[in-house]
Design goal:
- Pfam families: Arf.
- This is ADP-ribosylation factor-related protein 1.
- It comes from Aegilops tauschii subsp. strangulata.
- The protein is α/β, with parallel strands linked by helices.
- It has a single domain, classed as P-loop containing nucleotide triphosphate hydrolases (Rossmann fold, 3-Layer(aba) Sandwich), CATH 3.40.50.300.
- It is built from four helices and seven strands; from the N terminus they run αβαβββαβαββ.
- The protein has a seven-stranded mixed sheet, sandwiched between helices.
- The longest helix has 13 residues, at 107-119.
- The radius of gyration is 17 Å and the shape is globular.
- Bound molecules: guanosine-5'-triphosphate (GTP) and magnesium ion.
- Guanosine-5'-triphosphate binds at residues 24, 26-32, 49, 52, 54-55, 76-78, 98, 133-134, 136-137, 166-168.
- Magnesium ion is lined by residues 30-31, 54-55, 74, 76.
């Protein structure tokens, strides 16, 4: 009887947990974004950006509200570390892909790394949020320019959202979203 009640309690009151991968090439701003999210949603937590160094392993962020538990996995984006990414794919539910939109010389690398992520069989069901970071910098490119480089619409049929913003100030605006093939 107790185990039945215990199971029912867990079923009714347990929160759904979603695991979100934060990926992107090195220096895109992944860890800065994660720490900003923590400082917004977990009052008092979250490192200031001048205390963040390149990620070698994994940074984890847990954010909960009344109904949902989000677990963020932020991985290092240096070329030699990207082979680690796929170890997390089969347990991930969604992808946030961060791009330094003020660094045109990295767009090609960012595009091919993203294509490889999206081709992986374990991530076929995962929705994608592309975060065009560093919009506070004058060199940041427009939506059209970034799209021209990334060809997001040609990727596949998964639901995606394209958001521009700055991990420094936590501001952002949606550019567009939809199902890639339907656009
Ligand atoms: N101006 C500006 N700089 C940013 C922003 N976000 C991150 N940066 C800077 O970009 C650099 C790289 O940021 P990180 O968060 O370490 O980048 P990362 O993607 O985690 O890099 P790896 O861990 O090496 O993969 C740092 O100097 C940050 O301060 C932003 O929104 N605006
Ligand atoms: Mg990092």
């Amino acid at each position: 009887m107790f185990s039945l009640l215990h199971g029912l309690w867990n079923h009714v009151f347990s929160k759904t947990e979603f695991r979100v991968l934060i990926l992107g090439v090195d220096k895109a701003g992944k860890t800065t974004l994660l720490e900003k999210l923590k400082s917004i949603y977990l009052k008092g937590e979250g490192l200031p950006h001048d205390r963040i160094g390149p990620t070698v392993g994994l940074n984890i962020g847990r954010i909960e509200d009344a109904n949902v538990k989000l677990v963020f996995w932020d991985l290092g984006g240096q070329p030699g570390l990207r082979t680690i990414w796929e170890k997390y794919y089969d347990e991930a539910h969604a992808i946030v892909y961060v791009i330094d939109s003020a660094s045109a010389s990295t767009f090609e690398d960012a595009k091919s790394a993203l294509e490889k992520v999206l081709r992986h069989e374990d991530l076929q069901e995962a929705p994608l949020l592309v975060f065009a970071n560093k919009q506070d910098l004058p060199a940041s490119v427009t939506e059209e320019e970034l799209d021209r480089h990334l060809h997001l619409k040609e990727f596949d049929e998964r639901p995606y959202m394209f958001v521009a913003g700055s991990a420094y100030d936590g501001e952002g605006e949606p550019w567009h979203s939809g199902k890639a093939a339907a656009l």
